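Retry 2 of 3 after timeout on previous attempt. Resubmitting structure tokens to design endpoint.
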């Protein structure tokens, strides 16, 4: 067995009503003047008011400038508010975009250089202000990972700040926070969680610990995502999805994700397609490519997604896994084909060039990909 480390947020608080623990955690972490980091939509629909009502007797600020797939300037603006307001902690309330913004602000606020200098692995010099992450999507798993993904508009790329100092101090996963998600966000973020589980399970860095989390998450997502999509108020399905996305986050935060994410980033960076949708567009095609590298693992995926594999060869069972992924994406209405997003076919070689440089992710993938292989996958997904 290889040596592997396992890292997640320092404390997880889960279950309906878990936000009731917020004040206690704010005080425990010594936050006297935290900044709530969120977006305008969540403020408008009353989610932030609820969080504010839990912070009685504490002075705090609210930053509502987060945008989906945040660009560097969002972090710079939020950091300015953080510094000027002399804040001493961050409470991220939102999807991956709000949580990633708060994580980047924690890293950037004590730093004297430019934000871009922190992009890469282990370039954050000190631990910044403590972070409490409260996800409202299910989801990215960002509440338990050591990465913040930001959009570099000039380079048309999505880039990551990767550092253990970004691991949140507390993750409060309260499923009721996700009830207001519209179906399109439920499906995109839910497929993202599924991709995290699948890519962690077939990653070359998978361990028995990440395997158990990944398979558990796949089983729950396969059953619950269509239900949560069909009926946003299905509390049980929302609970399952919130827990599964947390488990998938713990799995990929340690085993890593692979080629689906590497190929999806250029779609987000260049064409601003939501992260979960970019993943979903590529998932079946990358998995078709990966299949021969670990057919036994694909059999496990098929079974976790509810397929019957008795009497089938590993290769036939692996095909069932890919079919199950396709069916799930179609049930939750993910549009098919890159052409549906007006991506010009001529852009494929440039996207393949960008994706092929993402060694941070491609090195986790169970099958090697050349730039030409990547181009071919984009063409199949077109
Ligand atoms: N750091 C990580 O480990 C990690 C992992 C995966 C993805 N990501 C990043 O996360 C981002 C995507 O995050 P996301 O998929 O959670 O979406 P998001 O945070 O971008 O939110 C999408 C939209 O949904 C709205 N929304 C969120 N929760 C809602 C709720 N409960 N009710 C109503 N509306 C709600 C938001 O206001 C926003 O308009 C991408 O930038 C992606 O790259 C990060
Ligand atoms: Fe993701």
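Retry 2 succeeded. Sequence:
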């Amino acid at each position: 067995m290889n040596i592997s480390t396992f890292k997640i947020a320092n404390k997880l608080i889960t279950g309906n009503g878990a936000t009731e623990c917020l004040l206690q955690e704010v005080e425990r972490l010594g936050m006297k003047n935290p900044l709530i980091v969120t977006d305008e939509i969540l403020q408008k629909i009353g989610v932030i008011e609820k969080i504010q009502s839990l912070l009685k007797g504490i002075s705090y600020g609210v930053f509502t400038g987060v945008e989906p797939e945040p660009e560097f300037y969002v972090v710079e603006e939020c950091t300015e508010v953080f510094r000027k307001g002399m804040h001493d902690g961050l409470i991220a309330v939102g999807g991956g975009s709000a949580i990633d913004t708060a994580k980047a602000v924690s890293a950037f606020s004590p730093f004297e250089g430019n934000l871009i200098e922190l992009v890469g692995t282990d370039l954050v010099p000190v631990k910044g202000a403590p972070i409490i992450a409260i996800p409202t999507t299910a989801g990215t798993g960002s509440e338990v990972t050591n990465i913040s993904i930001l959009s570099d508009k000039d380079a048309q790329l999505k880039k990551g700040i990767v550092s253990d100092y970004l691991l949140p101090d507390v993750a409060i996963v309260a499923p009721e926070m996700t009830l207001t998600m519209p179906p399109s966000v439920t499906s995109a973020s839910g497929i993202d969680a599924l991709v995290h589980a699948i890519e962690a399970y077939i990653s070359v860095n998978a361990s028995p610990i990440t395997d158990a989390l990944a398979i558990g998450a796949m089983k729950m997502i396969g059953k619950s995502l269509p239900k949560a999509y069909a009926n946003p108020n299905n509390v049980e399905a929302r609970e399952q999805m919130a827990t599964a996305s947390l488990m998938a986050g713990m799995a990929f935060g340690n085993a890593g994700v692979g080629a689906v994410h590497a190929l999806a980033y250029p779609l987000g960076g260049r064409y601003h397609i939501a992260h979960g949708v970019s993943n979903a567009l590529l998932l079946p095609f990358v998995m078709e490519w990966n299949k021969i590298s670990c057919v036994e693992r694909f059999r496990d995926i098929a079974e976790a997604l509810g397929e019957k594999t008795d009497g089938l060869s590993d290769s036939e069972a692996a095909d069932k896994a890919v079919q199950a992924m396709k069916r799930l994406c179609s049930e939750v209405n993910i549009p098919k084909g890159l052409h549906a997003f007006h991506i010009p076919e001529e852009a494929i070689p440039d996207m393949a060039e960008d994706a092929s440089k993402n060694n941070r992710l491609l090195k986790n993938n169970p099958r090697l990909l050349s730039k030409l292989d990547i181009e071919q996958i984009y063409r199949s997904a077109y």
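Attempt log closed. The pocket of fe (ii) ion (ligand 2) is lined by residues 140, 192, 196, 261, 275, 279 (CB under 6 Å).
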